[in-house]
Amino acid sequence: MPDAPPVLELDDVAFRRDGKTILDAVSFTVRAGEHWALLGPNGAGKSTILGLCGAHTHPTSGAVQVLGDRIGRVELQALRRRIGHVDPRHPLTSPRTVREVVLTGVTGTIELPLRWEPTADELDRVDALVDLLGLTARRDARWPTLSQGERGRALIARALVSDPELLLLDEPSTGLDVAAREQLLETIDDLEHSHPDLASMLVTHHLEELPASTTHALLISHGRIVAAGPVDEVVTTEHVAAAFEHPIVVGREDGRWWARAERRPRLVGAAAVTAGARS
Q1: Could you state, in order of their start, the residue ranges of all structural domains in the chain?
Q2: Which CATH number describes the domain made up of 6-82+164-278?
Q3: 5's torsion region: left (phi>0), alpha (psi -120 to 50) or beta?
Q4: What is the pTM (predicted TM-score) of this model?
Q5: Taking a C-beta distance cutoff of 8 angstroms, is the pair 13, 59 a contact?
């Protein structure tokens, strides 16, 4: 959506910690309605970028604009309330129901505040999202009894209840089996239609965990961008192999991505003996 307003703008961003450069020369723009994937190996800097996008981290240098406000010149708590964040490591310890967990998205807290009462409109929004995410039958089920897939969908509902302009998904498929993962990805795909102006960024290590609705990608390695832009231009064999520093072949089928190691020809007969002698 080239004419849509920018939701995220990072301009020549660097981030350093304890004398170590974590990010260097990172620049990209996310616009309303775009769905980005943030890809790269462990230690590449993905979590740091997500922290910048969520207004939890300040850059060492460069500029970060989130929802039109520059980090360092805005009241962060107010800005964070406009951002939905989905993290499967949600630190809830009490046995809240699905409905109550989604309600904490209204207050922006982990637990419901004491003596706080939601309005009728807030309860209606919660119930509508619980239904949208396919959890109506589990509305009163308590957190410890939920499957990982049900928790993931409840956390998406929690993130959406405050009607955010930006949704950040931090490895949402972590710990899911194949069926639960596919259910969750279908749920994320549906947001393209139910929330057409919502921008999102999803962090993952695995191409098969990219929703079919992904429009753009940012591929990072050693804190620097390998490629950024429309997903078909970024998620290529050449770029992915360079980022992960391994011969990886990438493909797409029915809107979903796959990746596997490049198969090398096996040596047989005299060639194998010769190779063995050389080693």
Answers
A1: 6-82+164-278
A2: 3.40.50.300
A3: beta
A4: 0.87
A5: yes
